[in-house]
């Protein structure tokens, strides 16, 4: 075989492309390592008020009834320290957690927001209503002594793995001992 056909233009381009991909992979991994051990926690101030509990029909549950909690919440958090060159966006969500006899772990997302790097990085929700319902699959919310609200977020990177984190600061509330009766009112 002649020497010039061993190193054709195609073979040389393939070798250069393969080497370039290897170098880019190594550089991407080095960039990922530069942010691997950074602290991705922040403080949050939560407040929950005006808690009301209703008993509603739930045709998906075994008992046919469910507890539906309605409340107002305030949330203030500065997430600007979480952004660095490797953070593309944050998916921030507020979780209500409680335990029941039937289910030892109940986690219900009641509010969420996607924060991009170039948008606002201070969350200031004042007297907001939940985006999603806090509904138990039975009647376990009535007179529940410990429902904990926690702010969690996913850090979406440019390179690396999707980090799950939790803000420092949470609030625990007690649910009402009785159900609210009457027609529900909506804020205008």
TrEMBL record:
UniProt KW keywords: Endoplasmic reticulum, Membrane, Signal-anchor, Transmembrane, Transmembrane helix
Record's keyword annotation contains rRNA processing: no
InterPro entries per the UniProt record, alphabetical: SPC3
Compartmental location: Endoplasmic reticulum membrane
One family name in Pfam for this protein: SPC22
A cellular component term, taken from the record's GO annotations: signal peptidase complex
Any one of the GO BP annotations: protein targeting to ER
Domain of life: Eukaryota
UniProt topology in membrane: Single-pass type II membrane protein
Function description: Essential component of the signal peptidase complex (SPC) which catalyzes the cleavage of N-terminal signal sequences from nascent proteins as they are translocated into the lumen of the endoplasmic reticulum. Essential for the SPC catalytic activity, possibly by stabilizing and positioning the active center of the complex close to the lumenal surface.
Similarity comment text for this entry: Belongs to the SPCS3 family.
Name assigned to this protein: Signal peptidase complex subunit 3
Gene encoding the protein: WBGene00204522
